[in-house]
Amino acid sequence: MSRVKEEKDLVTPGETVFEGDELYPNSGVYEENDKIISKYVGVVEYGRNSVRVVPMSGRYVPSEGDIIIAEISSVGYSNWRADLNSAYEGMMKIDTAVDEYIDLEEDDLTDYFDVGDAIVVEVSSVTEGMDVNLSMEDRRCRKLKGGRVIEISPSKVPRVIGKKGTMVKQIKKKTGSKVIVGQNGRVWIHGDKANLAAKAVKKVEREAHVDGLTDKIGEWLDEQLERSE
Fold first, then answer.
1. Is residue 185 within 8 Å of residue 206, measured between CB atoms?
2. 1 — pLDDT class (breaks 50, 70, 90)
3. Which residue in 7, 54, 117, 141 has its CB near the most CB atoms, within 10 A?
4. Which CATH number fits the domain that encloses residue 105?
5. Alpha-carbon distance 106 to 144, whole Å?
6. pTM for the full model?
7. What count of other Cβ atoms lies within 10 Å of the Cβ of residue 176?
8. What confidence score (pLDDT) does residue 67 get?
């Protein structure tokens, strides 16, 4: 196994990301002669058994295993459909959404998830025809209550999270806010200083190309907090 590029490295089309057959190519890459090669200008992300490249521009493309923030767009007889901030819509079936028995003749599905609800959800599978299936089975998944949701470019999500989560942890700690960053570019923020946290997230998005950005955002947050005292 050989990582030619490390997590969060920036790559261009045609660059080799990984050599060997231990990982499978996910979105944004292709396999050729035991090499996994980038399709785009983007950022490298490793999963448990895969590697992908997240494009630096364009809309979110769902990928299996992504944890995203979706919005319920319609309620069917036995499922929910959700907007993913993507060209593709997701579907969530009852058996992957709740862990209790639902009588479809008696129970109202809107009691669980209704149109407009924001949820943290996992992309459980994506077919070749881009049918996207969603699941609430991961422990991180839940319905979001209160707070606000802002949107950033999906390509800037790795920068907002930071290496080992350093950037988002800093924003949470300094603002005292709860922050959840979805791979689809939606960010949920809740807390008394949610506006400041949102400004910090957008500042990271705008300045994603800057070196030493974590320290600079930390200093900026300290300045903003001092002014508000």
1. no
2. low
3. 54
4. 2.40.50.140
5. 26
6. 0.76
7. 13
8. 97
The answer to whether residues 102 and 153 belong to one domain is no
Note down the domain range covering 179.
148-228
Q: Which helix (H) or strand (E) holds 219?
A: helix 213-228
* CB contact at 8 A, 45 and 154: no
Q: At which residue do the structure tokens 């946290």 appear?
A: 197
Backbone angles phi, psi at 87, to 5 degrees: -75, -10
Domain count, the chain: 3
Q: Which amino acid is at 62?
A: P
Residue for token pair 């422990």:
139
Beta bridge partners of 54: 43
**110-144 residue pLDDT tens:** 999 999 999 999 999 999 888 999 999 999 999 99
Ramachandran region of residue 97, left (φ > 0), alpha (ψ -120 to 50) or beta?
alpha
**What residues pair up with 79 in beta bridges, in sequence order?**
93
Higher pLDDT among residues 102 and 117, named by residue: 117
The CATH number that applies at residue 33 is 2.40.50.100
End-of-domain residue from the set 143, 175, 210: 143
The token pair at 206 is 């705008």
Q: The tokens 């947050």 sit on which residue?
A: 221
Helix axes 166-175, 213-228, angle to 10 degrees: 10
